[in-house]
Amino acid sequence: MEKDADGFYTPAPAGAAPATEPAAEEKPAVPSANSDLITSTFEVSVTLADQQADPNSPLFSAKTFEELGLHQDLLKGIYDMGFSKPSKIQERALPLLLANPPSNMIGQSQSGTGKTAAFVLTMLSRVDFSINKPQALCLAPSRELARQIMSVVVAMGKFTNVQTEYAIKDNLPRNATTVTAQIIVGTPGTMADLIRRKVLDLSEVKVFVLDEADNMLDQDGLGDQTLRVKNMLPKNRRVQVILFSATFPDHVRAFASKFAPSANEIKLQKEELSVDSIRQFYMDCRNEEHKYDILVQLYSLLTVGQSIIFCQHRHTADRISARMSAEGHKVASLHGAKDASERDAIIDNFREGREKVLITTNVIARGIDILQVNMVVNYDLPLMNERDKNADERPDVETYIHRIGRTGRFGRKGISINFVHDKRTWMQMEMIEKTLGRQIIRIETNDLDEMEEKMKKALK
Ligand SMILES: Nc1ncnc2c1ncn2[C@@H]1O[C@H](COP(=O)(O)OP(=O)(O)OP(=O)(O)O)[C@@H](O)[C@H]1O
Predict the structure, then answer these.
(1) Cβ(30) to ligand 1 under 6 A?
(2) Confidence (pTM)
(3) For 278-458, which CATH superfamily applies?
(4) Hey, what CATH topology would domain 2-268 get?
(5) Cβ contacts of residue 301 below 8 Å, gap of 6+?
(6) pLDDT tens, position by position, 102-133
(7) Which segment of the chain is annotated as a signal peptide (predicted)?
């Protein structure tokens, strides 16, 4: 980070985006947004890599997008998306992310608080649009999330000349030669493959982003493939490594610090991991069959807005959706065994509201941002042994946080309902409740009116 003449640290824009304040008449119009959505109730703790720097200095937070010295084309893009001022994580992270020389970042903030814009703006700010080579790589755990991130890159970069390309399965033809796009977003396996085949030339890469970084680095998950990509980055130039997630369990955090050395860190306290605006409920079902009956009874409530039902296995998602469809309910199912084009069509239909109920697995537990989703059902609770075969049946609290975070986006209200059906599942839920320090409220299964009443109240 650079100090100015007075010895203060000055966040500066980078790359081809000069620090010019747009002339008054050129300033993009600031839309009137509901500022309540931006007021955040949680405090983040910032640990700066430079021990001399004061994290409470106003210089480390930006109350407006103008203060960041972003290029006016990017400001136009931001306002065009309806953003009027930075969210808390953007306010804290962006000055650090955009400072020169670039520093690494390990950023944590709750689900739905605007992490994507923070790293997308950084990528767009650092790209030199006159160079037709990849300059920013972004990895995400699913094709659905990669596609969503790309839509933010394209929207924010709408008034720039940015060129983008996907590194997701079945996107580029097998015989593709060289990619000239500047920002590449994808999943780690395909990204590694394209680099190995020299379709992606990394000689100009400046920024490397991992969204859902704890998942991307987890040795039981995508860690190996992510590391392969990292090891193929050029050794002769400094690449800014940016890691973001709502969760960073201790065992991953240690590795994250090695992966992004000397990073500035923005952390959440344990009790702040899930957002207040998501009301958490549970229903005590008698057995597996009763879970299905309750889900069907919930259907009219599920379709008030949009809902996501999470199951442990692909076959459960398919089975429930086939059964509900046969009984005349309109539901869709999505999981990793479906082929790429089918997955794209299903999520697009859901995103555009053509489907109201999506039955799925952990494949879309993370990152997916669909504002109309006001209910998440954990038909099966997430368990540790789904990601690590050697683990026991402890609940997977991180995945739980991400799953319920598909609702209650950016200050909106949402509810989650866990189905428990025996002592074991009840205890798993109790462990989640204890870990998060938030009460999960019981709803009677035999009283649909009470259920409706509670839900209406929670969503009011
Ligand atoms: N400054 C802003 N003003 C208004 N809306 C914003 C702002 N920043 C982000 N949003 C909106 O907030 C929603 C959530 O943002 P985003 O998807 O980046 O959350 P996230 O923190 O990445 O969540 P997750 O941890 O679930 O991935 C999006 O719909 C986004 O458009």
Answers:
(1) no
(2) 0.89
(3) P-loop containing nucleotide triphosphate hydrolases (3.40.50.300)
(4) Rossmann fold (3.40.50)
(5) 375, 451, 452, 455
(6) 999 999 999 999 999 999 999 999 999 999 99
(7) none
